[in-house]
Design goal:
Layout: H1 3-9, H2 18-24, E1 33-39, E2 45-51, H3 53-62, E3 66-69, E4 74-77, E5 86-93, E6 99-106, E7 121-124, E8 127-130
């Protein structure tokens, strides 16, 4: 039985070794997995990014969120230049391991536009409406 089936059928409190789970994750052809950052106390969805194995390990080891920048082809330590860091509270995997949910403590805006989150474009009545102003 594969690890995802074992986790699916597991009772609360059962555990699997982290290394085995990471090895079994369905990384895409570029070695990446989707990562969603959510503010731990409010539940606000902040952003979506990508992680490779190194970024995930660094995040888990340091508690400071690190992503993989597809445009720069390099590790991206959130807030490294802006100061708007994400401190990891808890990491979770979805049921088949193809997405990581990062419960974080966001310091400053999450979006590079200065908005609190990256989801400020609402699709409404046949148009896209900007619903959040950047922070000044």
């Amino acid at each position: 039985m594969d690890i995802w089936r074992q986790l699916e059928e597991a009772e609360r409190g059962e555990r699997q070794p982290l290394d085995a789970v990471i090895a079994a994750m369905p990384w895409n052809a570029d070695g990446l997995i989707t990562a969603i950052a959510q503010q731990h106390d409010s539940g606000e969805v902040l952003m979506l990014a990508w992680m490779n194995r190194e970024a995930l390990r660094e995040t888990l080891d340091t508690g400071r969120v690190c992503y993989w920048s597809r445009s720069r082809q390099a590790l991206w330590r959130k807030g490294e230049s802006s100061g708007h860091r994400q401190r990891l509270i808890e990491a979770r995997l979805d049921c088949d391991g193809d997405a990581v949910l990062l419960l974080v403590d966001q310091q400053g805006p999450a979006c590079h536009t200065g908005r609190p989150n990256c989801f400020y474009n609402a699709i409404r009545d046949g148009a896209v409406e900007v619903i959040t102003a950047p922070r000044s």
